[in-house]
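ok posting inputs for the zinc ion job
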Amino acid sequence: MSGETRDASLTPVVVVLGCDGSYPGPGGAGSGYLLNYSTTSVLLDAGPGVFANLQKVQDPDLLDAVVLSHEHPDHRSDVDSLALFARHKDRRRPVDVYAPPGLREKTYYGDDTELCWHVVEPSYQIEIGELSLRFVATDHGPPTLAVRVEAASTELGSFSGGVLAYSADTGADWSLEELGVGIDTFLCEATYTHVYEGTFRHLSGRQAGAVAGGARVEKLLLTHRWPTVSKDDVEREVREEFGGSVHSVRIGETIPW
Ligand SMILES: [Zn+2]
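and the output
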């Protein structure tokens, strides 16, 4: 753990805390991404194992907010761990948690006073510190929100990053273009290969590549692969559809965006 402070960077980064699809593989974790920029720190999704990995890189007390994409446990179960942690800390205020309707009711400690819940819906735009987030609905069953994240200029200097988009979980009936133009880095689910297409509301490598190619993003970060699915097979499919930079994220990586 890095202690009570962290270095404030003018380049926004995503720290991967968990990236397994649907359930954690051996030593893995569900979805969780720490977005750090300047003095702002946001946890985007909190699947099983994410809270443990967060503590390896940062004091959870430094979080400004948690944003949860949807109610499936692989994206939100560790918000209960955060609630218990917050009980035992002398926080200056409750932790802000932004989530779609109904998610709070699925949370065991959803009524805990250490969590301050805010419902977010498609088209909502919110500001958390120096980050701006805009949401759209995906194709995934329960209310699920993809998000566009932009960093603002700060008192410390001018903004030096790009625009990040996160697909959350989605089937093929969704377009990244709903999140607008100018997306540089796209953190996209690629759960399996084309042989599973149509069986679940997720994306294959081929579909993820097509989504990214259609929106002309520069850098594609692949995530949410089932632990039983080959990374190489998924990446091969992606590259048949997308000519830009492709990378399958791993726990512990810090990636500028
Ligand atoms: Zn999932």
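notes: The domain at 9-248 is CATH 3.60.15.10 (Metallo-beta-lactamase; Chain A). Residues 21-22, 31, 72, 74-75, 169, 224 surround zinc ion (CB under 6 Å).
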